[in-house]
Amino acid sequence: MPNLAYTTLDVFTSVRFEGNPLAVITGAEALDTAEMQKIAAEFGYSEITFVLPPKDPANTAHVRIFTPTMEVPFAGHPNVGTAYFIGQQSEIFGKPVGDKLRFEEAAGIVEVDLRRSNGKVTAATIRAPKPLQVGAAIPEADIARCIAIQPDEIATARHHPLFVSVGLEFAVAEIANLEALAAAVPNPALFREAAGNRGENNHDFSLFLYVRSSENPWHLRARMFAPLDNVPEDPATGSASAALSAYLVSRTPGNDSQQRITIEQGVEMGRRSIIEVDVTKAGGTITDVRISGSCVFVMHGEILA
C-alpha cells in the first residue's frame, strides 16, 4: 500500500470541532475493499470517503463511503464534505473543478452544487440519489426499549415509527419533547434484537429521533444512534435528515409544494450541526430532495505504507 494523503473536515458546521468529522482519502486506487475497511475502522468516524477516478469520464469522481464496519451506498455528510474538499482544488483527475459535480456511488449518481462567495467554496448541496421509500412501521415499545425511554414519550399523532430512505434506510421516530430526546440512551443489545426482529438478513438498525414544535414545525432537533455500526451517536446525519424531511413533506396537504427544513443535531454531544434540506413535491410525489451544509477543514496528513 502506498502512502495515502488524508484530509479531515467538520461537516454541517462552520465552527471547527463541531459538526460531524469526516476523513477524505485520495490516491487509494491500489487498495481493495478490505484495506479500505481497515482504514475506516482505524479512523473510527461515522464515515470516511475514498475519492477514486470516475469509471465514466463524464463524472467527477467515484466515491466510496465506509463506516467503521461496512461500506454504505450513500450518506449525506460524506458527500457534502467530499464535495467541499474537491471544491477547493483547481482540478481533479485532469479536469477543472466547476460548480457542478457528479459522484459515482453504489446508490447511483449523486449530483452536487457548490456554493461560492468571492470565488471560494463555502458550502455544498447534494441531491438524494433515490426516490423516497417508506417501509414498515415499528412498534413504539421496541423504539422505547432501544433508547431507555417510556413508550408514551414517542409521539404518534403525526406518524408511528417507521423505516424511510432516499438512498440509505433509517428507522425514524418523533419524540414528545426535548427532555425525552436528551434522556435517550442506546442499548446495543436491544438494537441487535430489534434488527433481528425484522425477519430479514439485516444486522443494522439505525435510529433517527426528532422533536418537532408546533411553533416552528420545520425546524427540528434530532439525534441518531447506530450502535450496531460502532457509531453510538452521530452528530449529523444528512441521509437520515433527507429521508425524514421527504417523508414529512409527502404527508403535507396539497399536491405541489417547496419546503425547506432545518435540522439541528449533535447538541447533546457538544457537536452542534445544522443541516438544511429542501424538498420538492409535484403532483403529489416527492421529486427532489437536496441536502446542504457548510464545512471547515481540521487536519491533513498521511497514512503510511
Give a structural overview.
The protein has 305 residues and is an alpha+beta fold. It has two domains: 4-126 and 294-303, Diaminopimelate Epimerase, Chain A, domain 1 (Roll); 133-292, Diaminopimelate Epimerase, Chain A, domain 1 (Roll), CATH 3.10.310. 19% of the residues lie in helices and 43% in strands. The chain has six helices and 20 strands. An eight-stranded mixed β-barrel has the order 1-2-3-4-8-9-10-20. It has a two-stranded antiparallel ribbon with strand order 6-7. Strand 1 (4-11) and strand 2 (20-26) form a beta hairpin. Helix 3 (140-147) runs antiparallel to helix 5. The N and C termini lie close together (5 Å). The mean pLDDT is 95.
Could you give the order of strands across the largest sheet?
1-2-3-4-8-9-10-20
**Low-pLDDT residue intervals, each spanning 5 or more residues:** none
The number of helical elements comes to: 6
Compute the separation of the termini in Å: 5 Å
Biggest sheet architecture? 8 strands, mixed, barrel
The H/E string reads EEHEEEHEEEEEEHEEEHHEEEHEEE
Q: What sort of overall outline do the alpha carbons produce when their principal axes are compared?
A: globular
Label the structural class: alpha+beta
Radius of gyration: 19 Å
Which CATH-level-2 architecture of the largest domain? Roll
Short descriptors:
20 strands; 305 residues; Diaminopimelate Epimerase, Chain A, domain 1; 8-stranded mixed barrel; single chain; alpha+beta; 6 helices; two-stranded antiparallel sheet
